[in-house]
């Protein structure tokens, strides 16, 4: 059945789009007609991917830098007139008990996962308000809703991101702009592959035991999500059909938070 979602004429900025979930979202938005700026630290993978999109551009950016965030929004404006869709996706993980957590690393996670979405939203909103249309999709996590041990920085940032999402939704409600968060359980991406290694070390388990006993233990559906499943939800949130959804935390979690 042909897709009914038409994002042609919309310009999207997706952070962390060289890999995993961000890449799948950028691809899906492009497949539905959007022009996409692929933003990432990884120049080689990001450029190659952007070149493969019909209306893709790449800009290297470290989202912990205010200047880089400003430059991303300015680039979308130069290319296509302004950011209509902002997907805050760039992320990293660090697994360590609180008493051993490196302080600089804790701060860096907060910068990437929480402060960057604030900066990019701040810079992108004026164009969305002027147009009377905008979509902000924040890639949070089930760890925005519940906690697990050893991920204090990530969990604090993702909980904060849900609060930020709700606040923006309230401020932007009468201006045609929606702001939502997506909360996935484990998705098959390089970030999760690295976590499996870390958890195996931390818990003295094999990789298979980590997936079965730790990652999928609370889930109703005993499988990892695919990035394309998260991307389909993100694209839906950008559609006109989703114009009544804002301030929400959309769980796509194989039943992980059902208990
Ligand atoms: P990934 O490692 O595959 O991709 C993350 C991308 O972000 C990489 O391309 C990386 O280069 C980029 N990045 C990292 N730091 C950056 C920075 N400072 N500036 C610019 N780009 C930077 O990871 P993923 O699994 O696709 O994760 C994407 C998002 O989804 C993250 O916010 C993550 O927290 C969230 N998430 C992932 C899962 C999962 O199971 N994979 C589950 C829930 C939420």
Structure description:
This protein has 259 residues and is of the alpha/beta class. The chain has one domain (11-187, 226-252): 3-Layer(aba) Sandwich (Rossmann fold). It is 47% helix and 15% strand. It has helices spanning 20-31, 43-52, 66-80, 103-131, 152-172, 190-203, 207-215, 227-238, and strands at residues 11-15, 35-40, 56-60, 85-88, 134-139, 177-184, 249-252. Strands 3-2-1-4-5-6-7 form a 7-stranded parallel sheet, sandwiched between helices. α4 packs parallel to α5 (152-172). The longest helix is centred in the middle third of the chain and has 29 residues, at 103-131. The mean pLDDT is 96. Bound molecules: nicotinamide-adenine-dinucleotide (NAD).
Global structural class = alpha/beta
Cofactors and ligands:
nicotinamide-adenine-dinucleotide
What is the CA–CA distance across the termini? Answer: 35 Å
What is the 3D shape?
Answer: globular
- Point out poorly predicted stretches: none
Helix fraction by DSSP (H/I, runs of at least 4): 40-55%
The CATH C-level name is Alpha Beta
The tally of helices reads: 8
Biggest sheet character: 7 strands, parallel
Strand order of the largest sheet: 3-2-1-4-5-6-7
- Based on the coordinates given, report the CATH architecture: 3-Layer(aba) Sandwich
Number of structural domains: 1
Radius of gyration: 18 Å
How much of the residues is beta strand, in percent?
A: 5-15%
How many strands?
Answer: 7
Strand and helix order: EHEHEHEHEHEHHHE
The CATH topology label is: Rossmann fold
Can you identify the CATH superfamily? NAD(P)-binding Rossmann-like Domain
Mean of all residue-level pLDDT scores: 96
């Amino acid at each position: 059945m042909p897709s009914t979602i038409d994002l042609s004429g919309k310009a999207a900025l997706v952070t962390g789009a060289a890999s995993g979930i961000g890449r799948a979202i950028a691809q899906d938005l492009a497949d539905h007609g959007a022009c996409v700026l692929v933003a990432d630290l990884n120049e080689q993978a990001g450029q190659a991917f952007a070149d493969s999109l019909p209306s893709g551009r790449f800009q290297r950016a470290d989202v912990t830098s205010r200047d880089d965030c400003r430059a991303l929004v300015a680039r979308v404006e130069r290319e296509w007139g302004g950011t209509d869709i902002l997907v805050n996706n760039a992320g990293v993980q660090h697994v360590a008990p609180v008493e051993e957590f490196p302080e600089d690393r804790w701060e860096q996670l907060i910068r990437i996962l929480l402060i960057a979405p604030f900066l990019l939203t701040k810079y992108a909103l004026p164009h969305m308000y002027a147009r009377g249309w905008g979509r902000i999709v924040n890639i949070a996590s089930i760890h925005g809703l519940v906690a697990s041990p050893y991920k204090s920085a990530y969990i604090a940032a993702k909980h904060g991101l849900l609060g930020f999402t709700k606040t923006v939704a309230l401020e932007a409600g009468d201006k045609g702009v929606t702001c939502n968060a997506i909360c996935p359980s484990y998705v098959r991406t390089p970030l999760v592959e690295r976590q499996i290694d870390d958890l195996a070390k931390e818990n003295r388990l094999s990789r298979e035991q980590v997936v079965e006993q730790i990652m999928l233990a609370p889930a109703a559906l005993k499988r990892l999500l695919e990035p394309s499943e998260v991307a389909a939800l993100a694209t839906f949130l950008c559609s006109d059909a989703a114009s009544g959804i804002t301030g929400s935390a959309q769980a796509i979690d194989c039943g992980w938070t059902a208990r």
